[in-house]
Fold this protein.
Amino acid sequence: MSALVRRATVADARELVRMRQLALTCPEVPWSRPRDVPDGPWMEECRKAFASMLRDQDPETFAAFVVDAAPGRVAACAMGFLLPRLPGPGSDKPFNGDISTVATDPEFRRRGYARAVVTALRDWMDLRGCKRVTLASSSEGEPLYVSLGFVIDNPRMSWRPE
Ligand SMILES: CC(C)(COP(=O)(O)OP(=O)(O)OC[C@H]1O[C@@H](n2cnc3c(N)ncnc32)[C@H](O)[C@@H]1OP(=O)(O)O)[C@@H](O)C(=O)NCCC(=O)NCCS
């Protein structure tokens, strides 16, 4: 089934928060069980952040693609950022892409919606000049990303302040 994908607008900010909450519940290495993601002030902060990023984009460094379930209700989304990169001998592309949130409402799964929104986001990142696109996959999402050509890449190191 081919899904009707559209670019999210400011009017979708609240729904994007709901989808982000859903995506955050997914088990991710090193967790093996779904995570509890309680409601809280973070949701209003996140709504404001989405509204701001979708309203004032100069330069445009954020995009979300969605499939609608009904007017005002999103069934699936994928969103991500363009991260500036420095030119190197192998490439002068201006960005790397980071896919940060992908989710489909449980009642709309296995209809190709995640495939459609992730493909739209990946194509947008490619068009905007990304040298590479990265993401942290859940085990549930991995078959989708592999089928779209993503590979498990070099291990990277990270640090989080206490
Ligand atoms: C992962 C997720 C986004 C997939 O959404 P979806 O809309 O059902 O995915 P699609 O219908 O586009 O399926 C795409 C492919 O993913 C794979 N896939 C999806 N769900 C799967 C499952 N439960 N088991 C195995 N493979 C699965 C299949 O390869 C599928 O292709 P196919 O149907 O042609 O076989 C959805 O299950 C979800 O929101 N999970 C919770 C949040 C999450 O894990 N997000 C990803 C974070 S990186």
